[in-house]
Task: inverse folding
């Protein structure tokens, strides 16, 4: 599989309870990854993240029983041990949806609902060229998910990505509806000619490509 696979799961109160209840049944390596999260909700989301990561690994022909997740030096999730050939992932979530992108190359993902454009200056987060395109809530949201996805791809913070505008060509923004919500998905490191996302054969899976 060459194009990225995007998997998602709804975040509901019942789901959070179920994920939290599974903490005690995790093996040592999974528990180490989950317990490194700073809050109970984040730990629950890491349980779900493991589920999506393993489901995605299977789609790439990887034996998911032999892998877990760890955080790299930049805090990005990664498979351990690394599959051969390598497999990379990135994760993001809103209040209601968790997404994981998996590909054979380094990738960065961010997902957001429509964000309100701040009244205060945005010069600290966006370069002058980027600021020219930000005129309303939608353009602000699109710029934000691009920036977040690009930062995750590089393994840097938001401010560190201001040095150049390469992200403008190395990232794409897609709109999609999940569980009735319009969401903005930023993806960095994927094919630059990819124009759309479509639902894959299985519920909760999306493929990025040009159709």
Result:
């Amino acid at each position: 599989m060459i194009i990225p696979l995007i998997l998602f799961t709804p975040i509901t109160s019942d789901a959070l309870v179920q994920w939290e209840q599974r903490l005690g049944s995790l093996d040592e390596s999974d528990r180490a990854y989950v317990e490194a999260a700073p809050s109970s909700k984040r730990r629950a989301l890491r349980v779900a993240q493991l589920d999506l990561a393993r489901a995605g690994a299977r789609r790439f022909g990887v034996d998911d029983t032999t892998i877990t997740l760890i955080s790299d030096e930049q805090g990005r999730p990664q498979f351990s041990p690394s599959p051969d050939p390598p497999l990379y992932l990135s994760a993001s979530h809103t209040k209601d949806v968790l997404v994981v992108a998996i590909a054979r190359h380094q990738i960065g993902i961010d997902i957001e609902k429509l964000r309100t454009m701040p009244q205060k200056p945005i010069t600290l987060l966006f370069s002058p060229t980027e600021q020219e395109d930000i005129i309303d809530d939608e353009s602000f949201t699109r710029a934000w998910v691009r920036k977040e996805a690009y930062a995750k791809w590089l393994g840097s913070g938001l401010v560190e990505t201001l040095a150049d505008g390469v992200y403008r060509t190395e990232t794409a923004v897609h709109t999609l509806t999940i569980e009735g919500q319009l969401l903005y998905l930023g993806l960095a490191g994927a094919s630059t000619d990819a124009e759309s996302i479509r639902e894959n054969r299985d519920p909760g899976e999306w493929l990025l490509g040009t159709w």
Observations:
- The chain has a mean pLDDT of 83.
- The two ends are 16 Å apart (CA to CA).
- The longest helix spans residues 40-59.
